[in-house]
Design a protein that fits this description.
By secondary structure, the protein is mainly β. Helix content is 14%, strand content 42%. The strands form 4 sheets. It has an 18-stranded antiparallel β-barrel. Helix 3 (67-84) packs antiparallel against helix 4 (89-101) and helix 3 crosses helix 5 (103-110). The relative contact order is 0.15.
């Protein structure tokens, strides 16, 4: 909130990333490919692959994955299935569904010299969805989509194209209808001490919107890509929420430099294992109020590596700075903002910064050691917001996942807890008088927001055609800054049926009980959510 220092560790991330860019320009030559959208089931399915020991080099904490990386991992998983002569449900799912869905990427991973240089897919995926809300139900991790009380409908499709081997393009148009209503269900206010804390706002306007939800172009040379356009990011190993960057906020326009496929560095650095990085820069053009500076810049960097097939490590850095009235920055000013270590309170070089380190341990085939399950994942993300070395005003996300529980194939149990309420300054996370860490009313990081914690539990099981999820989420806000802590308890369920390899239909329902609404002692509310979606891929 005040007296912000930057993090020298950010300089290390950038220097290593730049070094890695130069080194990685020769041994690997990835064809340009678009990213796989974060809402795809592929991401949770790939956790099963790792839990069964079918993939080892993939870094799960850099999302979204490029299609070329997905193709490489599918090819590796198929080879491992063949070597084990395994006909497990996971292997059948990979061979029967994903190998066909990403056939072009898999072929390019196996035969790099036989690439389809130029192509156009006018419709890669298509979906229809309907959602009904009874009350201002809390919607999160939906890429900033807002739904109104009553009826909501959405149509969207995705298209992609490649030009030669170097350029790829992606667009995701969307038609969204919200029933005209007196309030919308949107994200919590990052500052729990201000009103309205829940983001429940009056709006009598008609809500029919046609938008380009995502869209970008990529230039890929060797194994380094430059993305320019609008997309979502997720940094860190967590399943339900991340501290710095998640898909909770609306996709934002950015320039991103990254390596789409992890690579091994030469010499003694090979002990780091596969290495991957992201560097992003954006100008956020959304509505900001009061002292909040309009059109601020957002810079971010992430570096991750995998020194052992079971262990993944990473570090992330996020900075918001500049804005209207503070544009007259020299290169030296920018460098000091991003990598210095001095307080810059209320100066043109002021900023809001967050830093996090994370670790994830995935151990496959442990049934003989742990009778309960056959795969285990443990992870933690630890972050600091503001001053100190190490940074103080700390927050964390920690969790575990168990796979193939009770000898049931394709089952998973996720348990995750997050706390963004430091004892030193409880309301510091995502909050700043000039640079709050949100975009279009939604925080970039964890949906619970500032001075909050969140407990998430989910059980899921996947059969050949049928799958389901059952879960619970408890979110508390105003833990230390308000007399009455607001508590949201959500109970949810989802069932789905695959009509064939390229289409499925999902039905979901959730009930939410909110106590101490707006931190009022005697105010409570019951909200309901009903949704149905049909998804088609080509």
């Amino acid at each position: 909130m005040s007296n912000h220092k930057t993090f020298p560790m950010g300089a290390a991330i950038v220097l290593l990333a730049l070094l890695f860019t130069l080194i990685s320009s020769s041994p690997v030559c990835a064809a340009s490919s678009v990213n796989v959208s974060l809402e795809r089931a592929l991401y949770s399915d790939m956790e099963f692959w790792a839990a069964e020991g079918l993939i080892e080099s993939q870094l799960n904490s850099f999302r979204p994955f490029a299609g070329s990386e997905v193709g490489s991992q599918i090819a590796a998983a198929l080879d491992r299935c063949d070597a084990k002569k395994s006909a497990s449900p996971t292997c059948r799912r990979i061979a029967g569904h994903y190998a066909k869905l990403f056939q072009g990427d898999v072929e390019e991973a196996r035969f790099p010299d036989h690439r389809n240089n130029t192509f156009l897919k006018p419709v890669e995926t298509f979906s229809l969805s309907y959602r009904y809300l009874d009350g201002p139900f809390s919607v999160y991790n939906q890429e900033g989509l807002h739904y109104s009380d009553g009826h909501n409908a959405m149509i969207q499709f995705q298209s992609q194209a490649r030009l030669w081997r170097a350029f790829s393009f992606f667009v995701q148009p969307m038609v969204l209808y919200n029933q005209k209503s007196g309030f919308h269900s949107i994200q919590p206010n990052p500052n729990p001490s201000s009103a309205p804390p829940n983001g429940w706002s009056d709006d009598e306007s008609s809500n029919f919107d046609v938008r380009l939800h995502k869209g970008y172009g990529k230039l890929t040379l060797f194994n380094v890509e430059l993305l320019v356009g609008r997309d979502s990011l997720w940094w860190g190993p967590a399943y339900h929420g991340a501290l710095l960057m998640s898909n909770n906020a609306h996709p934002f326009d950015m320039v991103k430099l990254s390596n789409p496929e992890p690579v091994l560095l030469p010499w003694i650095f090979s002990c780091l294992g596969p290495v991957q990085f992201n560097l992003i820069f954006s100008e956020l053009k959304d509505d900001r109020e009061g002292k909040q500076l309009k059109n601020p810049y957002l810079y971010g960097g992430r570096l991750g590596f995998k020194p052992h097939p079971y262990l993944e490590l990473g570090a992330s850095h996020l900075v918001m700075f500049s804005g209207e009235g503070r544009r007259d920055l020299s290169l030296n000013d920018v460098f000091n903002i991003l990598y210095g270590n001095e307080n810059q309170d209320n100066k043109k070089t002021d900023s809001n910064q967050e830093f996090a380190v994370d670790a994830a341990l995935t151990i496959p085939n442990i049934k003989k050691y742990l009778l309960l399950a056959d795969g285990l994942k443990l992870y933690v993300e630890w972050g600091g917001e503001d001053t100190g070395l190490p940074p103080d005003r700390r927050a964390y996300v920690t969790g575990l996942a168990l796979y193939k529980l009770f000898d049931l194939e394709r089952t998973a149990l996720h348990v995750e807890y997050a706390r963004m309420s430091p004892s030193s300054v409880p309301g510091s996370w995502y909050n700043h008088p000039y640079y709050p860490m949100y975009y279009k009313d939604s925080v970039f990081g964890h949906h619970a927001g500032s001075d909050a914690d969140d407990l998430f539990i989910e059980w899921s099981q996947d059969f050949e055609k049928f799958y389901y999820k059952l879960g619970f989420d408890r979110e508390r806000s105003g833990i230390q800054t308000r007399d009455h802590t607001q508590t949201k308890n959500q109970f949810f369920g989802e069932v789905g049926y695959r009509l064939n390899d390229h289409s499925d239909i999902r039905l979901s329902y959730a009930y939410e009980k909110v106590d101490h609404v707006d931190y009022e002692e005697d105010d409570s509310r019951n909200n309901h959510f009903l949704g149905i979606e049909a998804f088609f891929s080509f």
